[in-house]
Amino acid sequence: MAEAAHGNRGPRPCLYTQGMAGLLYLVATPIGNLEDITYRAVRVLKETDLIACEDTRHTRTLLDHYDIRTPTISYHEHNEVERATELAERLRAGAAIALVSDAGMPLVSDPGYRLVRAAIENGIAVQPVPGASAALAALAASGLPTETFRFCGFLPSKPGQRAKALEALAEEHATLVFYEAPHRILEALEAIETVLGPRPVVVARELTKIHEEFLRGTAAQIRAQLAERDRVKGEMTVLVGRAAAPAPDDTPVDVAVDALMRAGIPRMNAIKQVARRRGMAKREVYEMLLRDRS
Fold first, then answer.
1. Greatest CA span in the chain, whole angstroms?
2. What is the pLDDT of residues 123-135, one digit of tens each?
3. Please, what CATH class does the domain formed by 2-132 belong to?
4. What burial letters (b/e) apply to 144-180, b meaning 16+ CB within 10 Å?
5. Listed residue (48, 249, 53, 1) closest to 257, CA to CA
6. Which homologous superfamily is 135-240 in?
7. Given a cut of 90, is residue 266 above it in pLDDT?
8. Is 134 within 8 Å of 235 (Cβ atoms)?
9. pTM higher than 0.90 for the full model?
10. Would you give the DSSP letter of residue 11?
11. How far, rounded to the nearest angstrom, does the alpha carbon of residue 134 sit from its chain's CA centroid?
């Protein structure tokens, strides 16, 4: 009877016992509002032996809010290699460890892959404790199609690499979801407009926080709104709608190709993209370029 009553809660964490198999939990934490955490996540964080987190000071705010006294240890991109080995040893010795990120689900554009792989390779059970996700929250409220989407993480910070990454996604028939930092959002929107064209775009800012905001329009329109502000704050989730049917474009072909090349797209790829936008064959665009420049 006691086992049946406990069944909905899932396996309880193992206490640290030498020689027993440990358990690794991947615990989702709030992306802003501290109330966005599950009962299960709070229980697991209280009962595990150790919490591995990106920034112990940041996570301590959440732990103090729920009176969680479990010890913490840092686990971030700069110490991930060494720390994964150390934590794997503790798991093999029988520890129950919870891995959390600063916000949302661990491993989603955050460190953790090495630890999960090490646990699996050593026969340690890995259990996800799901919860808040900025990508899914933004997608659900975006007003863009949700039946098919592609999460792309952060765009590259260098202009050329960013343009190439977007160009590789140009033919995706899905809503694209990116994370972006506030100091790069204007450059990212400019690249989206240049490479992907005037598609519907949504920028979700400060999700679940007091100043939560959704900006909707084309990348150029949203960029213009943000450029008028003294300062752009808050983490951003950027969503880009699927490509629409080619629309009439009066921009000279050579100007359109040159704009893409300045954004970092190789010449033949730029020609291909201009052709796709206008519903033309690549050879047609190439021949028009030759005529225009002869």
1. 86
2. 999 999 999 999 9
3. alpha beta
4. beeeebebbeebbeeeeebbbbbbebbebebbbbbbb
5. 249
6. Tetrapyrrole methylase, C-terminal domain (3.30.950.10)
7. no
8. yes
9. no
10. P
11. 8
